[in-house]
Specification:
42% of the residues lie in helices and 14% in strands. By secondary structure, the chain is an alpha/beta fold. The protein has two domains: 187 residues, NAD(P)-binding Rossmann-like Domain (Rossmann fold); 177 residues, Rossmann fold (3-Layer(aba) Sandwich). The longest helix has 32 residues. It binds uridine-5'-diphosphate-xylopyranose (UDX). Belongs to the UDP-glucose/GDP-mannose dehydrogenase family.
Length: 440
């Protein structure tokens, strides 16, 4: 069976490399020539644990990349993994989906199965089916639930496979079960349903997780005022199986390419259908305020931050990724820069540091147009001579740093931990003044 994967971003690249590792003949297609060139040379354009190694193993064997949609002619199955960004109002912009389908249409000469992995609003798969009336093609909805940083591991061991079919489609189930045979053998649950249910599962999952985070974040503000300890609250709540431990870590809000965009899109989908969303709207607004609230805490402490220097530890939206999209660290940097602060930024992931340099066109020796943002390649240089250390990523590696040395290097011994990741007692023992999110 020949497979094409359209789009080589975080979703498409994992899908292409992952399916090649199952032994399929895979062609990855992307309009970005330089990316295609890199991939054919075995170089991964994005950072994801284990991905480059697997890419190198399969590229040139049963995996290749091209910019030509013509190469899809002899593919039986095509996975559509292009981006679905949000427009100015927060709606999902489907322009990349539609333009990919237009390009594909030119090469539909035999029967094909088009699998939509991109996150699309409820109703999109049916709309595509209608647009392709007259072609010998089946559309299947197959949302992905991968977390960046562990995406390859999760691709190989998913928690569930969701497939949405058209009611009259009798061939796709067998094809998809063949592709995902490994998962069937591992008894991973398959949810076979209609398009709309499949599409909603994706939004419901992301919005629910985002809501858990906003829930605990809202409580953290009350904890801050009342001497309650949000970490102990979350831990105790999590011991109740019905609640569960995960996604109850209070902090400066969720970021990334999915939660903020999908929550906003879901709100728009409610509105479009004439239903008033209340919980999801609150999830979004709590998240948007959380970073401002934390910034307010920092400002209150210093009074005036103009001219103060801060170390920001964490540039990407979470650990083990180079992805800066909707990163709370970057949002905080922007707020601090606007009030005249000087920022020294650091991230454990080199590619995240490079991406931050690209955003601000800055590096350690040359700030951009008088901007006060510097990216450093070493954590200890980053914390030297600063007026405060601000943690913006929940990376446990931070607990293994030499905090006694950091204490000596920093001018002012103050930590604002926006992710409650540091062991408070430990850093306080070294003499730091420590502020977390909703801690006693
Ligand atoms: C998410 C979903 O988890 C995944 O299933 C979906 O396919 C894509 O969106 P991802 O964006 O990679 O994955 O990151 P995730 O690990 O879910 O974290 C999202 C954000 O929430 C991060 O900014 C993280 O820092 C934050 N977060 C997470 C919290 O603030 N508290 C928590 O308890 C958990």
């Amino acid at each position: 069976m020949k497979i094409s994967v359209i789009g080589t971003g975080y979703v498409g690249l994992i899908q292409a490399v992952g399916l090649a590792s199952f032994g399929f003949d895979v062609t990855g297609i992307d309009i970005d020539e330089s990316k295609v060139k890199m991939l054919n040379n075995g170089v991964c354009p994005l950072y994801e644990d284990g991905l480059e190694k697997l890419l190198k193993k399969h590229v040139g064997n049963n995996l290749k990349f091209t910019t030509s949609y013509e190469e899809t002619i002899d593919s039986d199955v095509i996975f559509l993994c292009v981006g679905t960004p949000q427009d100015k109002e927060g709606n999902t912009d489907l322009k990349y989906i539609f333009s990919a389908v237009e390009m594909l249409k030119k090469h539909f000469q035999s029967q094909k199965w088009l699998v939509i992995k991109s996150t699309v609003p409820i109703g999109t798969n049916r709309l595509l089916k209608e647009r392709l009336t007259g072609y010998d093609i089946e559309i299947i909805s197959n949302p992905e639930f991968l977390k960046e940083g562990v995406a390859l591991k999760e691709f190989l061991n998913p928690e569930r496979i969701v497939l949405g079919f058209d009611e009259n489609d009798s061939s796709s189930k067998e094809i998809l079960e063949k592709i995902y045979k490994n998962f069937k053998e591992k008894n991973i649950p398959f949810i076979l349903t209609n398009y709309e249910t499949s599409e909603m599962i994706k939004y419901a999952s992301n919005a629910f997780l985002a809501t858990k985070i906003s829930f605990i974040n809202e409580l953290s503000k009350l904890a801050d005022k009342t001497n309650a300890d949000i970490k102990t609250v979350a831990y105790s709540m999590g011991l109740d199986d019905r609640i569960g431990k995960k996604f109850l870590n209070a902090g400066i809000g969720y970021g990334g390419s999915c939660f903020p965009k999908d929550v906003k899109s879901l709100i728009k989908q409610f509105e479009y259908n004439g239903v008033v969303p209340k919980i999801i709207t609150a999830t979004n607004s709590v998240n948007e305020n959380q970073i401002k609230w934390f910034f307010g805490k920092i400002k209150n402490y210093y009074g005036n931050i103009n001219g103060k220097t801060f170390a920001i530890l964490g540039l990407a939206f979470k650990p083990d990724t180079d992805d800066l999209r909707e990163s709370a660290g970057i949002k905080l940097i922007d707020l601090l820069l606007c009030e005249g602060a000087i920022i020294k930024g650091y991230d454990y992931i080199k590619q995240a540091r490079e991406n931050a340099c690209n955003i601000y066109k800055s590096n350690a020796s040359k700030p951009f147009h008088g901007s006060n943002f510097y990216v450093l390649d070493n954590l200890y240089d980053t914390v030297s001579n600063v007026d405060g250390i601000i943690i913006t990523v929940e990376d446990n590696k931070l607990n293994y740093e030499d905090w006694s040395n950091i204490f000596n290097l920093a001018s002012e011994k103050i930590i604002f931990d926006g992710k409650n990741i540091l062991h408070k007692e430990k850093v306080e023992k070294f003499g730091f003044e420590y502020f977390g999110v909703g801690l006693k």
